[in-house]
Amino acid sequence: MTMTFPLMERDFKVVILALSDCKSVFEGLGSIVEVGGGTGTVAQIISEAFPHLKYTMLDLPYVVANLTGRENLNYVGGDMFQAIPPSDAVLMKHLDDS
Ligand SMILES: C[S@@+](CC[C@H](N)C(=O)[O-])C[C@H]1O[C@@H](n2cnc3c(N)ncnc32)[C@H](O)[C@@H]1O
């Protein structure tokens, strides 16, 4: 429980920034891949806010195994050091576990 709140708080701050100050960045894209998205919180909020955007979230296979996507949100299991799905932009946030 003590680990969950700080992660959710960071996600919340990034999403607020994305949906306010940086909205035009997402409006100009057709596709985006988020690398190491973890629980998919950011992926869900941004993909819902920008339904035109083809959103792919890449994380290790066991992390995405039980995540369910929707029309414009696709979860992909893989290793970013092996391959990253092609897209107009790549989003990375806090990939260091330390
Ligand atoms: C500290 S978590 C951060 C999750 C999310 N980006 C956030 O900011 O809350 C790091 C994430 O990177 C993922 N990750 C680590 N190594 C990876 C790799 N080689 N390929 C893809 N994802 C990786 C982990 O599975 C984990 O979900």
From TrEMBL:
* Molecular-function GO terms, alphabetical: O-methyltransferase activity
An individual GO BP term: methylation
Q: Which UniProt keywords apply?
A: Methyltransferase, S-adenosyl-L-methionine, Transferase
Q: What SUPFAM superfamilies does this protein map onto?
A: S-adenosyl-L-methionine-dependent methyltransferases
Give the InterPro entries listed for this entry: COMT-like, COMT_C, SAM-dependent_MTases_sf
Q: Which residues form the O-methyltransferase C-terminal domain?
A: 21-94
Domain of life per record: Eukaryota
PANTHER family assigned to the protein according to its UniProt record, in alphabetical order: O-METHYLTRANSFERASE (PTHR11746)
According to UniProt, the name of this protein is O-methyltransferase
